[in-house]
Amino acid sequence: MSSQKKIAVVTGGSRGLGKNMALSLAKKGLDIVFTYNSQNEAAEEVVKQIEELGQKGIALKLDVSDSSSFDEFTKTLTSELQSQLNTDRFDFLVNNAGFIHYAEFEDLTEDQFTEMENVHLKGPFFLTQKLLPQINPFGGIVNVSSGLTRFATPGFAAYAALKGAMEVLTKYQAKELGKRNIRVNVVAPGAIETDIMGGAVRDNAEMNQYLASQTALGRVGLPEDIGGVVAFLCSDAAGWINAQRLEISGGSNL
């Protein structure tokens, strides 16, 4: 029976949204491989929490911004899947890893743009391409965008533009990978209390209140508002949902 268990690969799973996605998927009975960039101890803690839920948890180091490392990462992933889960394939890929340079349009530097582009567009584009041969038929891909593609908030021009590109890419992937029975959807979280941007949404009371006031449900989001939706998209219940953008923002900027 264990060989039929579904497996999800989540990038940026040691903290914030990615951690909640990994744990939500584990609660649904999936084994989890997740990546982390620098937070080794946090990653070990997430592995422990996944195992406490009765699932296998594997943490692998990956810098999503460095596409030259993807060949080596793919080899490591394959050997870990083989040694720990008796397979060289998996079912779901969640492209979550991210960070934000917050700057007004006129102030953002080319280096800052390139750093974000590598993590939010080039990285997930080529990582998905690299891992595609290992995604099982009837599996799926979940890309992560942002509410900022629908409404404009100064300071996020480059970040939102790159997320908009991921939304377009999602449709193309869904169209082209349909022949392999791989579904591709994109989730677009609103403002969430995590440590992104130095924890600004979580720790800056004024910003938190303002964002809450712009949201129909009267608060900002929490990581646990997001993970369950990703887990749902990686389930048979979502088997006919394809090429869709699901905004998870509590009704932000309506």
TrEMBL record:
Coiled-coil intervals, chain numbering: none
Entries under PANTHER family matching the protein: 3-OXOACYL-(ACYL-CARRIER-PROTEIN) REDUCTASE (PTHR42879), 3-OXOACYL-[ACYL-CARRIER-PROTEIN] REDUCTASE FABG (PTHR42879:SF2)
UniProt family annotation: Belongs to the short-chain dehydrogenases/reductases (SDR) family.
Protein name listed in UniProt: SDR family oxidoreductase
Lineage: Bacteria, Pseudomonadati, Bacteroidota, Flavobacteriia, Flavobacteriales
